[in-house]
């Protein structure tokens, strides 16, 4: 499908590059009847009508306040900051309303607003609240100036051809040329980065170039300030996403990056369709959008790395992204997302989404198990997502396991190599803290990242990962961490036994860590069963801590504890340990134990066994938190003191079992206690043998050869039985186990 | 409306009392066409069809297991206990299915099950797991035996006239006569109590009497074992509910009591309509049902006293109750509840509910502000419910304040005189802990009340009430507490300024406490504003603690604290104090402060002022809890050390302000900080003057005369201004406050 050109107005005035003119005619020619009927990008479909109403309410309220363009003064969250944010949304939205309704008042408002900016802009220099070299002019950060331009240029496009020559010239020159010059030349360091901040900048400058017919501006945006192609928007699409469309900072920032990527791509497609931007790099931009959706559970993004946990698919970036992608693909699964969002945008593609949704064309989004490679060439580790279990009404499986075997992901990355998370029954069961930040809440350091983001949220012990000698991975050094990543050894989404396995030998000097997570389905047990195998190898003696951060209320555990009931001490002094209260401790000579908790009417048992004695800590986050900045969440930490030597290191095998139900309404409780009676683990010639015994009698072995070749045969003799299988792993029912 | 007789089958065999026969003919005569069409109590309406399907699934699964009637052995939660529970539901439901479908297999199943009980019953003596004198025969508690009978007799009624004489005689004699004899004669101590356990027993025995045509049995059920009317079902309807239909144990047990009350009343109405049971005591039973619904927020019951917090309107007791009450009243608001429940029952009244709901007859339930007196004569205190704010889609106001000025409510009562709770925006903001119990969860002491129910959940400091000298009200003595209650001084549901005021002088010797809660609407502030005035008077020196248990994450507070960040001590040794961790402490010489927290996208500020210096504790529940039985929830505790003497005592004036919003999706935060700049309080000649100053300038006085006469004029001179008003309280805008 070809959409009418967003920036069509630009083509009516002088200096238009040939490519843009070509795009106009092509766009016009491709209109089919349904689009012709909505040439202003409008429709009466309910989703669109609601969006129109919502937008009108916002713009009318803004118009009621008059045009307010204050001299820049405040940092993020402050008055002038928030006012300029409101202004760019108002310019953007009022332009849309003028296009759709033809009502002059919207045009006049955009015109007056932009003339006020034309008065202001030539007076601007460094922002008074500038904090570093990345300062803006309207805002304290150049990023915000770029966001202003991306939005304002779209609103301007909707009214530009209605202006007098004098007004148009003033706004062109004193607002948009100045803004583009500031971003692409005065702030060239940002502009030429391979970074999402540069994506916002190049998008703003490029779209301004199309509108003003400034070919050089477009070229700088696409190819970098020196037009070499080593920087700029096209290069960003090549380097910022992995071949699977995964963005290295993680889902939270991937979402944020999508808006300028897709909005600018949309403009490129209209103005220079011969670039086939949406086919570029095997369709990476549309792939990135779908990958973003895959990185969510019940609409909420997996919160690993710096992430605000309440970010969901219901976010402005994705309203734009879904509409643009649907315009390109007509993929009915995107309508499903729009339906979940309950929102769309006031463009042709938004109208199309609303119409087709209203026509009942939506299909469930195909949430799937998948391995998302990291790094531009896909060789910097990966994020593995295992989905299993009965789907909910929207077709999304109940259980999702995430293995974070990806690269550090720059400054917003956490020190959590090989960490995992688990969702089940609508909830996050094995959790990731996300970022320590209350976005936009003034009382919490102006809404910025809190000190505890460094001291707790990024630390290794705050994650479900192995911690050696009470230090974070890479010594907590982000620059060092950026140079290394795990190796993904195996991945299988085979139903009945999904597997991910990865290892890293750079997180700690002289320590190699391998983690294999398996999701087998055992007869007699409810899905999901998770088997977690962690093996650390080292020639030196170390202390190995394996924390599990869970959600729920402790029901019982099967070991003796020393409880700190009347005075609560702290686990350590640094690297996140200072934030952990110790509720209880235990020493398990056999290295075995189990802990059961309840969450939302379902029970979960974490059962573990190590290759030697274990210490256990039942703890809670929130110590050394004088400003009440942290959430208080429970954890269990397994501690193994192990010698070094040829076979030095530690192994942990554990099993997470969801079981039973508690129904308060019916006063009915089922299987509140684990259905497993024993878990044991041995390594036989490099093969891991995990034996699970059910209380009802049957015994199963999960055998892991660690050999990815599907045809290699393996066998192990266990208590007289010969277990034989091919491939990486297998579930084997032991004979005679039945009672 | 007259429903077809549930126990109609009973009237076809010998020994039917005259009243029952009369009821049959009257019932039959009153059938209108729509009822005749559903003489089996059936309909195709969706709600009913779903119920039928659900019931069939349950009964078929039970039938698949065969008839399993084990010899009683286990206590609550154990195997034989749960099996007999399943059995009585299966008898009840299979009888219904036979009546509706006519399928013989259901009849055969009920017959076989009851014949198995006929084998078992004569062999029964004291239950092996008997714990006290209230032991049953099938179950460890007589209460459960009564529940068995209430259900089983209804299932039996549906098949009894299809049995051979021999079978009927055996089941009559060896099951039902024995069960009735056990409950009404062997367990006469329970049977003659004025207590809901007796309600279950009398309901079971009375319904058995109707079915077997045993007039004496019915008489004992209605009038007590000696037939004097001093005990029995009728007396229970007179003594267990207040004139407003409030049951003294609180909403959780009120719900539980409703089933036998309404089911037996329904049987009385059919068999002896001349008793006009539903008109008895001004319609107390239907009133009690509506009052139960009024004691809920978004479907969940207010959790005060012993209460499992996840109990909602979606509970079996209320499916029965709503259907029976709708059959009696055709009140369209009851359909609204049935719709919320998504459930009904397989009787004529359930069919009617389903049909009328399908026909769109439902109307929103009229949730309202109301004062519910406690005690059989309504003179033992009261529960005040203030509702305010914009209604949600279901017509329920957003803000609800509960003032618990009621009597102790027997053994399940908590020591929380004059306590309060607040709901807003869908959440419990100022909370009540409820019971310390994990119902039916074996690992938690077999699902029974936990030790922490006595040591924490019932204690005064666990509630939002005044605690004197670190002891609970009435010294924590339930027998003593049952003899006293607060006096409700004033109540007003006037829009714009709702008020409740009460006092008690018996909770602590020599201390009189008065609490006045007001809900004013102030221009410039969002609803709800809550003003809380607590005044304790005593001739002696005391320590006064005023805890507030809130839900949310602390954002900020405006006082200096000493924080326990690396070792966390406990607040006290006894009376609940041993369960409170101290996070931070403060000393406020001016006795003034404010604390802000966030919950679910909304901010709340608690602002307080006292008549002298205050200590402040920021704490959390969960200390001295070796079994992880407690939830960990935040609290703030204000502490006033005050001298005695003529004007001895302490006053606390506080203000709870809901403000602003946090929208993670839109990344928009509004008014995260309090809109109030100051709160002060003075008492002038017995009149309380609370002055609220907004940051935007305006000042308001909330003046409280404590004189309920609406026409009495009051005036006070404040800083040169004369404030004049009539009645108990007023909101007065001060002149010159605007900025």
Overview of this protein structure:
The structure is a homodimer of 739-residue chains. By secondary structure, chain A is of the alpha+beta class. Chain A is 32% helix and 26% strand. The first copy, chain A, is built from 18 helices and 29 strands. In chain A, strands 9-10-11-12-21-18-17-14 form an 8-stranded antiparallel beta sheet, with no helix packed on it. Chain A has a 6-stranded antiparallel beta sheet with strand order 8-13-20-19-16-15, with no helix packed on it. In chain A, helix 4 (79-101) runs antiparallel to helix 5 (104-120), helix 9 (196-212) runs antiparallel to helix 10 (215-223) and helix 9 packs parallel to helix 12. The longest helix of chain A is centred in the first third of the chain and has 23 residues, at 79-101. The first copy, chain A, is elongated, with a radius of gyration of 28 Å. The model of chain A is unreliable at 1-38 (pLDDT under 50). At the A-B interface, strand 14 and strand 16 of A face strand 14 and strand 16 of B.
Oligomerization category of the chains in this entry: homodimer
What's the overall geometry of chain A? elongated
Main interface pair? Answer: A-B, 51 and 51 residues
Roughly how many Å is the radius of gyration of chain A?
28 Å
Number of strands of chain A: 29
Largest sheet, spatial ordering of strands of chain A: 9-10-11-12-21-18-17-14
Content of β-strand of chain A = 25-35%
* N-to-C span of chain A: 64 Å
Number of helices of chain A: 18
Q: Indicate the low-confidence ranges of chain A by residue numbers.
A: 1-38
Q: Main β-sheet of chain A, in a few words? A: 8 strands, antiparallel
Mean pLDDT across the residues of chain A is 92
Proportion of residues in helical segments of chain A: 25-40%
Structural class based on helices, strands and sheet pairing of chain A: alpha+beta
